[in-house]
Design brief:
globular; UDP-N-acetylmuramoyl-L-alanine:D-glutamate ligase; 15 strands; ten-stranded mixed beta sheet; alpha/beta
């Protein structure tokens, strides 16, 4: 069993899509990453911060999934990070209505002693200085440091982000972010340039169009599973990342071929996440369902090409 450290937000989300809307519900990058990773045989912990306005049953819900929550700081009298957004009809674009950092504004992460030797560190989407602080607290270099980031940090904290990327083994970003990071429209050229910044592996997420994995001259593409219904894309990218690192932590194999499997497992779990609002679908996901859908992925992608 590998040891996985997850750093990110545990938050409130308020979401509106063409299919309905929610009031404040449980969200946050670390939440989705943790729930996806809990599908695997891993020893996982979340480092985060919340206010005492977050119902404790939300934290207990994570603990019930065998996620260590001892490093989630609860600020007395503080308010939990809050994001609200509205998705347009195609569900690929969204408008942010409100972002309230609240307790996250002064967050100083503390890595638990028993997780300072984690095999895999998943740096969820946060300020690069927080991500770097976690890296510096590790007692030895993890086998894999996986980074997720976004265009906001590219625009506002480029110097700090560049330093984090230098220490990263794998970066997971979407196609728009990859292009912004490198000023390259071609994703192949963008990945090659990102390699020179530090990461050995580059994962570029393309939403409903799947994901690309790059390692030097090797490229792998995994499609997204075509779904009849998509209710809410919130958390899909983090769920992908959680499945990806959860599989890598369980298998303890960092080869390119094993990363291909990790991409498929991440895509598989993300396909469940979008079927309900927030964490609702991931909360009650059964391993039999996951296994059944993996078989669908195999049927979708594997066949013998007849060459003349």
């Amino acid at each position: 069993m590998g040891k996985l450290l997850i750093v990110g937000t545990v938050a409130f989300d308020a979401i509106e899509t063409p299919f309905g809307k929610t009031d404040k519900i449980l969200g946050g990058a670390a939440t989705f990453i943790g729930l996806a990773a809990s599908q695997f045989d891993v020893d996982a912990a979340i480092v985060s911060v919340v206010g005492d306005d977050l119902p404790y049953e939300y934290l207990q819900f994570l603990a019930d999934k065998n996620i260590d929550i001892s490093a989630i700081e609860i600020v007395k009298g503080g308010k939990t990070f809050f994001w609200s957004g509205k998705y347009r009809n195609d569900l690929n674009t969204r408008d942010t209505i409100s972002t309230e950092l609240n307790v996250l504004a002064d967050f100083s992460p503390v890595v638990p002693e028993n997780y300072k030797n984690s095999d895999v560190v998943m740096l969820g989407n946060l300020h690069p200085s927080i991500q770097m602080s976690v890296i510096n607290q590790m007692e030895k270099r993890p086998k894999l440091i996986v980074l997720d980031t976004m265009n906001y940090w590219m625009n506002n904290t480029w110097k700090e982000l560049k330093e984090v990327i230098k220490h990263t083994d794998i970066i997971t970003i979407n196609d728009e972010e990859a292009r912004q990071l490198t000023n390259e429209y071609s994703l192949v050229k963008a990945a090659a340039q990102i390699h020179t910044m530090g990461p050995k592996y580059v994962v570029i997420k393309k939403g409903e169009h799947g994901a690309l994995l790059f390692h030097n001259d090797n490229i792998f593409f995994a499609p997204a599973l075509p779904l009849e219904e998509v209710f809410d894309p919130t958390g899909a990218g983090d769920t992908f990342a959680g499945g990806f690192v959860g599989y890598l932590s369980e298998t303890e194999n960092e080869s390119f071929n094993n990363l291909k499997n990790a991409v498929i497992h991440g895509s598989n779990l993300a396909s469940f996440c979008v079927e309900r609002f927030g964490t609702e679908r991931m909360a009650n996901l059964e391993k039999e369902e996951v296994e059944r859908r993996l078989h669908q992925f195999r049927e979708l992608t594997q066949f013998d090409i007849e060459l003349q």
